[in-house]
Amino acid sequence: MTQNLKDLIAQLTLEEKASLCVGDSNWTTPSVPRLNIPAMRVADGPHGVRRTVSSGSGSGEETLPATCFPTASLLASTWDPDLIRRVGEALAEECLALGVDVLLGPGVNMKRSPLCGRNFEYFSEDPFLAGEIASAWIEGVQSRGVGTSLKHFAANNQEFQRFSIDAQINERPLREIYLAAFEKAVKTAHPWTVMHAYNKVNGKLMSENDDLLRHILKEEWGFEGLVVSDWGAVRDRVKSLLAGTDLEMPGPKPRRVRALVDAVRSGALAEAALDEAVERILRVVFKAAATPKGGMSFDDLAHHRLAAEVAAQGMVLLKNDGLLPLGGQKSLAVIGRAAQEAHFQGGGSSHIHPTHVSIPLEALQARCPGAHLRYAEGYPADDSSHPDLIAEAAAIAATADAALLFIALPDWKESESYDRTDLDLTAQQVALIQAVCAAQPRSVVILNNGSSVAMGEWLDQAAAVLEAWMMGQAGAEAVADILFGVVNPSGRLSETFPLGLEDTPAYLSWPGELGRASYDEGLYIGYRWYDARRMAVRFPFGFGLSYTQFTYSNARASKTSFNEGEGLTVFVDVTNTGSLAGCEVVQLYVHDAEASLHRPEKELKGFAKIKLQPGETQTVAIALDWRAFTFWHPTYQDWVGEDGEFELLIGASSADIRQRLSVTLENCHLRPSLLNEESTVREWLADPRGADIFAEFFAALQGQALANMGGDEEGQGMGMNMLDLLMDMRVLSALHFVEDGLPDTPENVIASLLARVQA
Ligand code: BGC
User: Fold this and answer.
1) What's the Cα-to-Cα distance from 380 to each of 132, 266, 273, 420, rounded to whole Å?
2) Is the pTM of this model over 0.70?
């Protein structure tokens, strides 16, 4: 603690200290005027600033206008941390203008299932991609003196029973999948605050989860900021403070303050623990106060343009039979209510009051002033069936040169606070797409949604499909730019699009029962699952089309062998072989050829987005650090790498590997042996230290043991190879068959073997 803060805390009364640990309103922390401690204002994010003001009528809150950027699904699909940093800077400028000290985002929960209603607010199914994009976002916001709140820590991967569900996750998936993006962002971007989730993880409510909040986040990762509760997530203020929840939001809650005071007085809570929470809170409060905020303006037009730029970079062209980019069409049928009512964000706490909203129909007309555009609504806002709307749309489409179908997954299917029940568009939307495509083969489907949707019923009929996500307030301009080739699409999927819901990794355990969600698929979410099961998917992770083509060549690594703790750099030459300038996302996956524990087939560990002119070649360099080669070892409680070969797979998607390299990890130090009294003969023989010691000792006994078990000279008996049986016996059991020949009891023999191994 700095001396100044220490001195200040020493001047606070117990009541003042307790009050600082509970919000003062929905969005502010308390001030202590006599000691010049200011209040601090927070606001939702993540893809805009939801700065609320009292409506004045005494009934609720109103939200001030702010730029609604595309939501996280699209941001991650840009694969462009530099661009996301610029989005962060723009968000910070709006916070400065609107008087917001801390923006409540980003959300880095994993997309375990496409059904999570809040997937639109989350980046990816892959922790590496999510961690990189989140870090850039945080760095951008915080570079301007505005704080962030990395959320929802941890495992808030569904909305069903989100306040109470107990996410049961084994240690490796917890570390390697569900905590990894948090860890990356905490260690590299240093968010001022981390927001804990509502749910339980492995039996402990997150507000009271000392394992995750205190031991992992604060002690192990060195997080120095404050932990804030999700809104209303605290059950017991004293227990939550002890576990590491520094600030409870929202407030005011005088009873909570009193509970803390009483607990200190009764000795149930050490005052030092309260002081630590206060110190963490004050450190952030003063950091925020160092940059004065409020009463300024921001350049809303520039931010709108940035929202359009990022939207164009994150939309993913999924299919194109050659119709796109459009050009020369004299008449276009523009179909679907989302062409008139842009679907640009999702429902819930992230809902932004936008400064402007671009309308697809208008943006298209602006891009092709000479063309005649005819609009048909096509589908209603609700789930009702309207054959008349379909007939009208098909008739318009049939007489146009091409049809553009704007299909948005409705809010009632996808939002914060409830999960989706299927991957389907509405029945009317599907029937509409089918009818329009039948009437007009030159049809483009433009989708707005936060996570994958089913396409099997109509994909073959559509000439082109653009995944436009929840595209932000300027998304319509990005759609027009991509359709007309002003922008060459370069978004790549940040999640797998499966063939069907029943293929998805969490299908059999979603959404849980009896208060528990059991993460039975373990490490295998997203492409890790489809890879391991050798399953076909609709569109793989990392996939996206361009109007040009790229070739990869000459992959090489800075070294072909490396030692424990080291990393290396991979180089590959990428050439634009088409006739248009465009961006390529080069993806680097690591495959561990042989590991002592299960590992996914391959894992994303690096990527780079580059822009190439036609005919241009660039050498892309992607650095891999030591962590890229390791896995979490539950016994050693550490990230472990093992000697041997690793394949480095360089590709344009997880299913389109273009170049392969092999490198060798050498000289990893021997860790303490895992052998114990329960270990089998096979385990002893496989252990790097046990093998020699045991083989020598056991060679003399093996024949006798087999004979005593009833085997012949070749070890055959009872119609099987008895050596296999012996190999899988505990050594203790095996020794019982040769007890007479042992110098000591089997137990003592094992004890002395173990002593030699551990020596
Ligand atoms: C959401 C958070 C949000 C908070 C404040 C909660 O219900 O889960 O993401 O920041 O409300 O609005």
Assistant:
1) 39, 61, 56, 19
2) yes
CA of residue 458 to ligand 1 center, whole Å:
37
Q: How many beta carbons lie within 10 A of that of residue 201, not counting itself?
A: 24
Q: Whose CA is nearest to atom 6 of ligand 1?
A: 231
Identify which of 26, 29, 51, 104 to mutate to test ligand 1's pocket (most ligand atoms within 8 A of the CB).
104
Distance of alpha carbon 547 from alpha carbon 529, whole angstroms? 30
pLDDT at 58 over 70: no
Q: Which amino acid is at 186?
A: V
* CA–CA distance, 712 with 564 (Å, rounded to integer): 47
Which residue's C-alpha comes closest to atom 8 of ligand 1?
230
Distance between Cα 274 and ligand 1 center (Å): 25
Question: Under a CB-based contact definition with an 8 Å cutoff, are residues 332 and 403 in contact?
Answer: yes
Please give the number of the atom of ligand 1 that sits closest to the Cα of 105. Answer: 10
Q: What is the pLDDT of residue 7?
A: 96
User: 336 near 443, Cβ under 8 Å?
Assistant: no
Percent of the chain with pLDDT over 70: 99
Smallest CA-to-CA distance from 322 within 402, 394, 396, 400 is with 402
* Contact call for residues 111 and 495 (beta carbons, < 8 A): yes
Interstrand relation of 561-563 and 656-666 (parallel, antiparallel or unpaired):
parallel
The label of the residue with tokens 């801390």 reads 102
How far, in Å, CA of 116 to CA of 127, rounded? 17
Pocket of ligand 1 (CB under 6 A): 44, 104, 151, 230-231, 349
Residues recognised as catalytic: 230
Residue 250 Cα to ligand 1 midpoint, Å, equals 10
| Ligand 1 center–CA 288 separation, angstroms | 21
Nearest CA to ligand 1 atom 4: 231
For residue 480, give the nearest of 389, 429, 585, 404 by alpha carbon: 404
Question: How far, in Å, CA of 23 to CA of 31, rounded?
Answer: 10
CB contact at 8 A, 111 and 451: yes
Atom of ligand 1 nearest to the CA of 249: 5
Place of tokens 């208060």: 515
Q: Is the pLDDT of residue 60 over 90?
A: no
pLDDT over 90 at 698, yes or no? no
Digit-coded pLDDT (tens) for 474-507:
999 999 999 999 999 999 999 999 999 999 999 9
